[in-house]
Amino acid sequence: MAQLDANAFGYGTQIRKSPYFDATIRWGAKGFSVYNHMYIPRDFGDAVQNYWNLINDAILCDVAVERQVEITGPDAAEFTQLLTPRDLSQCAVGQCKYVLITNADGGILNDPVLLRLAENHFWLSLADSDVLMWAQGVAVHSGLDVTIKEPDVSPLQLQGPKSSEIMKALFGDQIESLKYYWLKEFEIDGIPLIVSRTGWSSELGYELYLRDSSYGDQLWETIMEAGAPHNLKPGHTSSIRRIEGGMLSYHADMDNKTNPFELGLDRLVNLDTDANFIGKAALVKIKSQGVHRKQVGLEINCPPLATSNTTFWPVVANNRQVGKVTSAIYSPRLDKNIALAMLDIDFCEIGHKLEIQMPDGPTKATVVEKPFYDPKKSNATGKS
Q1: Surface-to-core class of residue 121, CB atoms within 10 Å of its CB (0-12 exposed, 13-18 middle, 19+ buried)
Q2: pLDDT tens-digit profile of 254-282?
Q3: 247 assigned to some structural domain
Q4: Residue 363 belongs to a domain with what CATH number?
Q5: How do residues 336-379 score in pLDDT, each as one tens digit?
Q6: Cα 98 from Cα 153, distance rounded (Å)
Q7: What torsion, rounded to 10 degrees, do the Cα atoms 125, 130, 132, 135 define?
Q8: Per-residue confidence (pLDDT) for residue 384, from 0 to 100
Q9: Rounded to 10 degrees, what is the CA torsion of 61, 67, 72, 78?
């Protein structure tokens, strides 16, 4: 198949290209979508093969679309706590935390990974929404001394069971001391990096945050060269693996009208803290009253789905809609169609039988436990 013409590709300067854009095209990217106002590779030829590459060996993904909101200044720690209901008082320098950014109604605006680089230096590594503008707006009348900007930082994800061997080839044995959800500063041939043991795959993996976009091409080629003996392939974030792992996708599985309790993310909400974070009063009320809907896992009884869903499929019981399928895929490892769905609370019991109105007609489904595979995250954490 002919290679894409990088110069002809695009819709104008308002959609940005990552520092790895040209490299991904050289290495076989065949399709892109837009995420955080930037192109992200979504197609390297075969989504199922990409999945097997991830779970058997390793893949390198351009995720520069995970833009960083950088928060610095004397009041950076206090301000960052204002944005999230997760208690950050025990977040150490060098640690990462999965957090939620909530609005005044308790709705979720983003679910970034927070990185604490120094006492008053934070990054929010974003999902797909404009939290930079939100944070700058919150800061205006906060009375806190902070600077909020988007730095020149562009992450790559190196994910899969062989990622640790590739990282040792790049950084030596010192990389073995990097713990799950912690970060360290590194350099490769003068290329400045922050490396964290994180990723959006539910597999062992790392994210390499490039701190100078001019090195994008060099960094990509350096990693691919180091990974060649370990069967490293260029790839894209795997919908199959992330749904197997119950990992959420913003705008699909949640939005600003979804609260943390509906997703079972109570652990990310600390209502006992003295911090008056945005949405606290609303979340106190929601917890007291209870939720009216909840996210569940489903197994869908139909032939293997060819692709993931591109619309929300209505879920029906007793001749009325009781929810929607938000993410659905066929898992070749489990040999099942699996899905995440948001359902009315009365229909969330494990084993409940439902009907999904799919494009090809009504289909039976059953409520099941989630995550669908490796619920203890043994693959990612290294702990059984």
Answers
A1: middle
A2: 999 999 999 999 999 999 999 999 999 99
A3: no
A4: 2.40.30.110
A5: 999 999 999 999 999 999 999 999 999 999 999 999 999 999 99
A6: 19
A7: -110
A8: 66
A9: -100
Asked which of 242, 262, 277 is the last residue of a domain, the reply is 242
Structure tokens at 124: 């929010």
> Which amino acid makes up residue 134?
W
215: phi then psi, degrees, rounded to nearest 5: -95, 10
Cβ contacts of 336 within 8 Å, gap of 6 or more:
299, 300, 330, 372
* Average pLDDT value over all residues in the chain: 96
DSSP, collapsed to helix, strand or coil, labels residue 159 as strand
Q: What is the DSSP string of 259-305?
A: -GGGGT-GGG--TTSS---TTHHHHHHHHHH--SEEEEEEEEESSPP
Can you tell me the distance from the alpha carbon of 349 to that of 297, in angstroms, rounded to the nearest whole number? Answer: 10
Do residues 182 and 55 share a domain? yes
Adjacency order of strands within the sheet including 96-98: 96-98, 113-118, 121-125, 68-72, 147-149
Query: Residue 266: what residue type?
Result: D
pLDDT at 57 over 70: yes
Q: Of 104, 98, 63, 67, whose CA–CA distance to 82 is shortest?
A: 104
pLDDT at 4: 72
Segments forming the whole domain that contains residue 312? 292-372
Backbone phi, then psi, for 316, in 5-degree steps? -125, 140
Q: Which long-range contacts (CB under 8 A, 24 or more apart) does 309-313 make?
A: 309/339, 311/359, 313/356, 313/357, 313/358, 313/359
332: confidence class by pLDDT, cuts 50, 70, 90: very high
CA distance 129 to 151: 17
**Domain limit, last residue, from 122, 149, 176:** 149
Residue with tokens 């909020």: 148
Query: Does the model's pTM come out above 0.90?
Result: yes
